[in-house]
Design brief:
alpha/beta, 9 helices, single chain, 7% strand, four-stranded mixed beta sheet
Length: 228
Amino acid sequence: MIKVNNEAKMIKEYLEELEEIIHNLVNENTELALDGLEQIKVVDNIENTSSDGRFEKNAIILPKNKMEEYIKNNDRDTVKSTIYHELCHVNLKNKLPQLHSLCDKYKVEKNFIKYFTIMVYIEYIAHIMSLKYETEEITKRFLESINNRSWNFNDEISRIYFIKYVPYVLGRVNNNFDYIDIVKSKEFKNHIIEVKEIIERISYVGLIDDYNILLELEDFVSKYINND
């Protein structure tokens, strides 16, 4: 059983339900390589307030308020898909150690083109895996949130956010690309179609821990991100 560190003092009944969800997910997915996962930590806040969770330093981090709110509103699907997605990241870190090490290295060196290239690939694979527990409602809710932002690809901020969104979008629409029509920006959709073809060619060869398979994706990322 993975240890749950209730650092933020989550309400007992919610914590018990959270622990049950975690226990069931781990038992249902014994194929995942979870070596190195030391704990799941419930904290008051995480740096990216729009995120429901993250995996870092051998721990899955979950924000207390969001988890409590989901459980209170009987939205266990979101809790389950969030935790499973982070378990997928643990699995991928074990299966793609070289890419994860390079990603950390490029982040420190501020080589943003290579960093985002790896990030897009790893997040894409994690979201493909996460479809196992992601409901149609969760997918639609995420795609609708894209419409809350104005997309101007002459603007550097829009280009950066687009690259960040690429794996989240493509992973979620993998089983039904028609979902992309929820997004209103035609320009956004055109750019997504272009990168979709690239990342599907990469994924076709299987899970390979080698940056060289990502060179075509790097060329694409370099159109939107620079290292200055």
